[in-house]
Write a structure and sequence with these properties.
Blueprint (H helix, E strand, L loop, with lengths): L12 E6 L2 E7 L4 H12 L14 E10 L2 E11 L6 E3 L1 E4 L8 H16 L4 E2 L5 H21 L7 H8 L3 H10 L3 E3 L6 E4 L2 H12 L22 H9 L3 H7 L4 E2 L17
Parallel strand pairs: 5-7, 9-10
Antiparallel strand pairs: 1-2, 2-3, 3-4, 4-6, 8-9
Helix pairs in contact: 3-5, 3-6
Amino acid sequence: MQRKCSWHHPPADEIYRSQNLSVFEVDGQVNKIFCQNLCLLAKLFLDHKTLYYDVEPFLFYVLTQNDSTGCHLIGYFSKEKSCQQKYNVSCIMTLPPYQRQGFGRLLIDFSYLLSRREGQPGSPEKPLSDLGQVSYRSYWRSTLLQYLDEHIGQKITIHGISRDTGIDPHDVAATFELLHMWGRSPETQRYQIQIDYGMLDQHRNYMSSKAVLWHKLDEDALHWTPLVNNTSSAEDAVNGDGDEEEDDEDDDDTCFGHRAAAATCVSDMSAG
């Protein structure tokens, strides 16, 4: 029987390949039918999804697992080509057979890698679905704890974290609030990060356990150029008009305060 479709991979440029995983960047305007079918497929698993046909303003980043027969769809995320709110994800989905294997987190991680390459911290489109909120909070929590663990003893600021991770400063501050690591200094009465070393110990133990099913993102395997270079505008957004003014208005240096260890769940993302 003759195959109806001769394609063995998404009709787009492969911008990332690491071992047997690839990411393809599909332009909704160039490959409209493919992107519409991708949205209709996502609708089977995402009740809140409403966009099906208006795909021209979006880019779709399709994650595949590759073998000798071709590239098999794992999931995808989409983002607007031009978004004033600086959203780096509009919709994200992992197919059920690949859920709870770390691929949802890999897609989120990849979206922030693109944001760092663009020089513009990003955030998922709001409001988040219930599952999306769980997935992103888990990602933000583990990413910030890992960042703190790697920069102990150094000056750490909200804007510095945002610049290095690609996470929007508002999401960084909100996550520290959820972790109870954000409060006023008794001396200066200004808000700052207050590290909970017990929570960092829990994070280290979790990362060293066999329960971690995360796929390590190889940044060197990305071969991609942003549509528009936002480096200058990103530096303005992250650094403000000047470093001195930033330190005066939003001093978020680390404070080595004593806090009781609190249980934290650094769970895997099941789907977007």
